[in-house]
Task: structure prediction
Amino acid sequence: MRTRAVQVLQLEADLRRALKRREFELHYQPIVCLADNRLAGFEALIRWRKSDGTLVPPADFIPLCEETDMILPIGDWVLNEACAQLSTWLGRYPRTNMQISVNLSVRQLRQKDLLFRVRDALDSRRLPPERLKLEITESAVMDNADLSSAILNELNAMQISLSIDDFGTGYSSLNYLRRLPVNTLKIDQSFVRGITNDRKQAGIVESTIILAHKLGMDVIAEGVETHEQARQLRSFNAEYGQGYLFARPLQAGDAEQLLAG
Ligand code: C2E
Ligand code: MG
Ligand code: MG
Result:
């Protein structure tokens, strides 16, 4: 326990320094319309570029940040960086109607001034709020039902779009899901992986898509890696896909090429 405590403190100090030294970067993974492969938007995904050049994936530091308040300054940086990038892209490609999705963690949801921070990130760049989409995991939403519902309603009132991330990995109350002002369900990649060779997995995915549509939500299938999966998802009427089949998370410059093309 002691070793872990020391590791946690060390990592926290490293992350604070990383923030000061601007060592974080956002990569952007395309979200595409399954019907015609058109670009619908990007999900912003954080990476930590250490001074020695190594790129640290979020799984190695975000969960720990979420245990402490470190996620607050980092989450704030992500939100502002994504908005700055969106503003640049809208300036260069004013006719695009893409959205940028940003992941929000539970602690950010609980942050008293979250709404103010989000509004400020948008307003300071005169961004239309409907271009920003916030992703909250199913477990974050469901484990904090009353709080989430209040905040999601306020974000929705601000015209910001909302997605439930990693859907299927937590425990949703359907009664509660029905009342949430959510635009999009993101079906977790663990379900998508099996759809072409496991009839039950396919059944779960198809039923989830029907459920989403009945609740007035659209669907993004995560982790699409093969043409066969994409074909199956299309036959289930899933609107959007995200995964290595279309593109890996890209550095901003490479993502921009897709806007230009
Ligand atoms: P997520 O939000 O569900 O993001 C999707 C993850 O799936 C990304 O991993 C992405 O690279 C990966 N992925 C996309 N397509 C495929 C595919 O076809 N196959 C496979 N095997 N994986 C695919 P990444 O970038 O490592 O992020 C992992 C998680 O870290 C994210 O899951 C999210 O929960 C968290 N995360 C990333 N950036 C942020 C952030 O800025 N804030 C917060 N709070 N969490 C973040
Ligand atoms: Mg996400
Ligand atoms: Mg996900």
About this structure: The chain has a mean pLDDT of 95. The radius of gyration is 18 Å. Strands lie at 24-33, 39-49, 55-56, 99-103, 132-137, 161-167, 184-187, 218-222, 240-242.
